[in-house]
Amino acid sequence: RVVASRSSMRVTRDLEFIMLPRNVGKRKAQIAAISRSSGDLILNVDSDTTLASDVVSKLSQKMRDPAVGAVMGQLVASNQNDSWLTRLIDMEYWLACNEERAAQGRFGAVMCCCGPCAMYRRSAFVLLLDQYETQLYRGKPSDFGEDRHLTILMLSAGFRTEYVPSAIAATVVPNGLAAYLRQQLRWARSTFRDTLLGLHLLRGMNWYLTLDVVGQNAGPLLLALSVLAGLAQFALTGSLPWWTIGTIGSLTLIRCGVAAYRARQLRFLGFSLHTLVNVFLLLPVKAYALCTLSIP
């Protein structure tokens, strides 16, 4: 106990805790911390996230390149064994990090450095501070989607954004559907808003990134149209839309099979269940998000 206590005292001497008078949101809390700090690199970690011991060294190594403005690590669910949903989310994070972010990182343009584990170059962040703090959407202050917006600002300023798969951060994920859908609603609004903001970036980037951004936004739209067409067929003819069901099912199995092979884990075959969650829950949430972009 004495060793732990003394160790804690030594650590806390190097830390400054800033107590704000009220909950002002993540963005203003970040800005308050940055204004009181002086380091060359800024590490952003969510309060429910645990970092592996080598995360800081691995992220900072990537930041040795002065062209890099931000870098993120790989996210895993620390509570993945809580429920079927947390297991799905853990696999969803693996796919988002090791397919989407990894591919974007090859071109130095990760489109969203996720908040649970992201490092920023202070000199770059300070240049963008005013734009970051005063983000408006339709004349109203925006108080969510900070991670994606800051990443887009970094790219707009000409900095690279990277991904380090070996820098592991374990974060708590929703273990119930209600909390999960609320989270997805916030993320969907942020994605729609900042995708529009970042469209001008695509002109100066690799063709793959254009395809990636178009695919991320057109994919849900095409899926929604397929589902609506299938429902219309069933309502008008009484016959099941086997072609639609077969196509969606085949694409699901291909994606899950590739993930299982790359990760060397058969559990990814179970990610097929996420297609049902996507069709019956996430598509309506995304449609609602698109219709309510101005709601904070």
From TrEMBL:
<dbReference type="GO" id="GO:0050501">
    <property type="term" value="F:hyaluronan synthase activity"/>
</dbReference>
<feature type="transmembrane region" description="Helical">
    <location>
        <begin position="273"/>
        <end position="295"/>
    </location>
</feature>
<dbReference type="GO" id="GO:0085029">
    <property type="term" value="P:extracellular matrix assembly"/>
</dbReference>
<keyword id="KW-0812">Transmembrane</keyword>
<keyword id="KW-0808">Transferase</keyword>
<dbReference type="GO" id="GO:0030213">
    <property type="term" value="P:hyaluronan biosynthetic process"/>
</dbReference>
<keyword id="KW-1133">Transmembrane helix</keyword>
<feature type="transmembrane region" description="Helical">
    <location>
        <begin position="242"/>
        <end position="261"/>
    </location>
</feature>
<keyword id="KW-0328">Glycosyltransferase</keyword>
<protein>
    <submittedName>
        <fullName>NodC</fullName>
    </submittedName>
</protein>
<dbReference type="InterPro" id="IPR026463">
    <property type="entry name" value="Chitooligosach_Synthase_NodC"/>
</dbReference>
<feature type="transmembrane region" description="Helical">
    <location>
        <begin position="218"/>
        <end position="236"/>
    </location>
</feature>
<keyword id="KW-0536">Nodulation</keyword>
<dbReference type="Pfam" id="PF03142">
    <property type="entry name" value="Chitin_synth_2"/>
</dbReference>
<dbReference type="InterPro" id="IPR029044">
    <property type="entry name" value="Nucleotide-diphossugar_trans"/>
</dbReference>
<dbReference type="GO" id="GO:0005886">
    <property type="term" value="C:plasma membrane"/>
</dbReference>
<keyword id="KW-1003">Cell membrane</keyword>
<keyword id="KW-0472">Membrane</keyword>
